[in-house]
């Protein structure tokens, strides 16, 4: 079906209007407010404060490291699960059931789920009890109210996003490509590394982007599981808006977080493009 | 070196309750071009996948080059496959696709490079080394898939309906190219096809399969001229299958006069006389002695370019198709009497 110019405009009108009204406009307002001083004049003072105060830079660093850890962990846990769901489960109904099981946690409240982790991860919680009982440790590990608990709590919440995005791609990989690789002399592992994995990378990447961005902006889970001892950017933003009532500095923190995330994603895209180019050149020489 | 490259002994395989292969025994000779021919669901692809190593037989023995191959995975078999949908790796360019098998053998880079080049030249795709599979037409992808397989110099090349997706003209050309490639390489080729013309055109020997069994094995001419059962007669080319009647003088067929020795031919209760339409002659006044003769009423007459196709109703109600180029044909009108006949050795009495 061909859609004419007016059809295209019509179809795009609603989403574009939505994005303008509820994303671009508020974000512009936030960005503008970050450039104001308390008296309403234009000023870069907020940004100077952010860059010169190690407290804020440390919070930014904490936020990004937590997001990165969660991304890596959901990747390592989610990929095998997605692989299993896509290739090992033959029964259609069992497959659907598994998808439902993966998605169901998303229906429960983050608050409830974060508090459950407090019970599990405490000094006398289930996890430490198990570790002690198995003699893996001789005294309880400090797992609660630090980065570890935040990373665990967020990984648990983010896992479905990674699994779904990887499984969606794996599901569409032609299984005959695996046959072809085996036929050409590749063992199961070589086949995975040379065929399945590279073809599933788009799913891993989109999953990672989703998890990373959601983690950077996550508020509920980090604030409950930090016990106030770790500070991430979203907590500071909330503090500035809700407690300190310094809206323009809150806006600065939010903008800074967004810019940093964009810079990271941009760097990644450039690296990826460079890698593809170099691969293409190698391809030319191989021939 | 033994002449037999692949031996299958009493191979059987089921899928659930469906019997895919039943008691298949077959020898593939070194260097021959063998076609596995049959309608869809006859087990030909299952058999090919079994030789490739993607399926194992439930019972029976499979050996390649004298080595038992049951339960040997595909990557440890001296065979390569050209898949039906080509199965080119979409994330590798043409040269990388072709080099895939050679890299697995850890050959030196220089050798990989020269062999890839050689394989590309063999299929006439030198100019496409750095293209991506998605940029190629179906025919070009087919050539790349072919190059990717033969570059490994396998003992056996398996072709799973490789031409099915191509249009008729290209398919005809590729058939001839495949045959030439086979002659040049001297490799053993096994081709799966449902297209009897394709099998007749390129294969040295044809294995006709039906419901998981081998219906007949032979050269194209053997299978066409002397089919051993009704399925083969009907599947390869066109055939009239006229049910016989059994009397005390031997077999007969309403409307046909059978020579004496043919009446005594071995037969079963539901045997039929098989005669190909192009082997039937229209009779003027007399037909030579020893011919099968018959007559009936013309039901329909169709002009087919090279000649006429006549549908004649026999007195028993059966219909017989006759292809003729004889000049008298256009004079007969529907409803008119047709006399015809054929040399007795052109027809066969076939059991079910």
Written account of the structure:
- The complex is a heterodimer of chains A (287) and B (352).
- Chain A is mainly α and 287 residues long.
- Chain A contains 12 helices and no strands.
- Chain B is of the alpha+beta class and 352 residues long.
- In chain B, helix 2 crosses helix 3 and helix 3 crosses helix 4.
- The longest helix of chain B has 18 residues.
- The interface between A and B is medium-sized, with 21 and 34 residues.
List keywords for this structure.
heterodimer; B: alpha+beta; six-stranded antiparallel beta sheet; 9 helices
How would you summarize what this structure contains?
With 287 residues, chain A is mainly alpha-helical. Chain A has helices spanning 5-34, 45-52, 54-88, 92-103, 110-121, 126-133, 147-171, 175-183, 188-217, 220-226, 233-244, 247-286. The mean pLDDT of chain A is 89.
Strand order of the largest sheet of chain B: 6-7-8-3-9-10
What composes the largest sheet of chain B? 6 strands, mixed
Rg of chain B (CA only):
25 Å
Question: Structural class per helix/strand content of chain A?
Answer: mainly alpha
The amount of beta strand of chain A, in percent, is under 5%
Regions with little confidence, pLDDT below 50 for 5+ residues of chain B: none
> What percent of residues of chain B adopt helix (DSSP H or I)?
25-40%
Number of helices of chain A: 12
| Overall pLDDT confidence of chain A | 89
Question: SSE layout and pairings?
Answer:
The complex is a heterodimer of chains A (287) and B (352).
Chain A: H1 5-34, H2 45-52, H3 54-88, H4 92-103, H5 110-121, H6 126-133, H7 147-171, H8 175-183, H9 188-217, H10 220-226, H11 233-244, H12 247-286
Helix pairs in contact in A: 1-12, 3-7, 3-9, 5-7, 5-10, 7-9, 7-10, 8-9, 11-12
Chain B: E1 4-15, E2 18-29, E3 33-37, H1 44-52, E4 59-64, E5 67-68, E6 79-82, H2 94-104, H3 109-122, H4 138-150, E7 156-160, H5 168-185, E8 188-193, H6 196-202, E9 205-210, E10 213-218, H7 220-225, H8 230-235, E11 240-243, E12 245-247, E13 250-252, E14 256-257, H9 260-263, E15 272-275, E16 281-282, E17 291-303, E18 308-313, E19 319-324, E20 337-343, E21 348-350
Parallel strand pairs in B: 3-8, 3-9, 6-7, 7-8
Antiparallel strand pairs in B: 1-2, 1-4, 4-5, 9-10, 11-15, 12-13, 14-17, 15-21, 16-20, 17-18, 17-20, 18-19
């Amino acid at each position: 079906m061909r859609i004419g110019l007016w059809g295209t405009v019509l179809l795009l009108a609603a989403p574009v209007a939505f994005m303008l009204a509820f994303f671009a406009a508020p974000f512009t307002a936030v960005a503008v407010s970050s450039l104001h001083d308390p008296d309403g004049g234009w000023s870069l003072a907020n940004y100077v404060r952010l860059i010169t105060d190690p407290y804020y830079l440390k919070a930014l660093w904490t936020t990004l490291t937590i997001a990165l850890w969660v991304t890596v962990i959901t990747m390592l846990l989610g990929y095998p699960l997605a692989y299993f769901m896509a290739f090992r489960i033959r029964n259609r109904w069992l497959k659907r059931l598994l998808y439902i099981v993966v998605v169901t946690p998303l229906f429960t409240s983050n608050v409830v789920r974060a508090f459950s982790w407090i019970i599990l991860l405490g000094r006398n919680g289930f996890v430490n009890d198990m570790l002690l009982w198995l003699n893996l440790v001789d005294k309880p590990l400090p797992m609660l109210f630090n980065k570890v608990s935040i990373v665990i709590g967020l990984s648990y919440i983010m896992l479905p996003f990674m699994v779904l995005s990887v499984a969606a791609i794996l599901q569409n990989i032609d299984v005959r490509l695996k046959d072809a690789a085996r036929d050409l002399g590749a063992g199961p592992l070589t086949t995975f590394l040379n065929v399945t994995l590279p073809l599933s990378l788009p799913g891993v990447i989109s999953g990672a982007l989703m998890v990373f961005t959601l983690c950077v902006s996550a508020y509920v889970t980090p604030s409950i599981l930090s016990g106030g001892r770790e500070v991430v950017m979203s907590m500071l933003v909330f503090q500035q808006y809700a407690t300190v009532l310094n809206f323009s500095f809150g806006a600065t923190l939010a903008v800074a977080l967004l810019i940093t995330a964009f810079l990271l994603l941009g760097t990644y895209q450039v690296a990826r493009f460079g890698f593809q180019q170099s691969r293409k050149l190698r391809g030319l020489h191989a021939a | 070196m033994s002449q037999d490259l692949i031996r299958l002994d009493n191979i059987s395989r089921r899928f659930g309750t469906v019997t895919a292969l039943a008691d298949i025994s077959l020898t593939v000779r070194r260097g021959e071009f063998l076609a596995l021919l049959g309608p869809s669901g006859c087990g030909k692809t299952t058999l090919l996948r079994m030789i490739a190593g993607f399926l194992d037989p439930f019972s029976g023995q499979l050996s390649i080059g004298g080595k038992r191959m049951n339960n040997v995975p595909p990557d440890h078999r001296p065979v390569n496959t050209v898949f039906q949908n080509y199965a080119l790796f979409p994330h590798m360019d043409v040269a990388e696709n072709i080099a895939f098998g050679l890299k697995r053998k850890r050959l030196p880079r220089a050798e990989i490079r020269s062999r890839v080049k050689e394989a590309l030249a063999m299929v006439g795709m030198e100019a496409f080394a750095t293209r991506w599979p998605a940029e190629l037409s179906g025919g070009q992808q087919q050539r790349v898939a072919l190059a990717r397989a033969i570059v490994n110099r396998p003992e056996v090349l398996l072709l799973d309906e490789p031409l099915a997706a191509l249009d008729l003209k290209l398919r005809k050309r590729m058939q001839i190219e495949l045959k030439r490639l086979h002659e040049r390489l001297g490799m053993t080729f096994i081709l799966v096809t449902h297209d009897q013309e394709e099998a007749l055109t390129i294969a040295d020997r044809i294995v006709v399969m039906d419901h998981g069994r081998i219906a007949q094995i032979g050269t194209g001419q053997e299978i066409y001229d002397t089919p051993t059962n009704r399925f083969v007669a009907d599947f390869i080319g066109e055939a009239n299958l006229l049910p016989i009647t059994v009397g005390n003088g031997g077999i007969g067929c309403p409307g046909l006069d059978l020579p004496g020795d043919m009446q005594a031919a071995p037969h079963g209760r539901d045997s039929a006389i098989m005669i190909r339409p192009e082997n039937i002659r229209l009779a003027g006044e007399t037909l030579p002695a020893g011919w099968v003769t018959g007559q009936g009423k013309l039901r329909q007459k169709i002009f087919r370019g090279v000649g006429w196709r006549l549908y004649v109703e026999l007195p028993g109600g059966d219909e017989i198709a006759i292809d003729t180029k004889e000049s008298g044909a256009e004079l007969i009108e529907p409803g008119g009497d047709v006399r015809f006949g054929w040399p007795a050795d052109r027809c066969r009495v076939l059991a079910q």
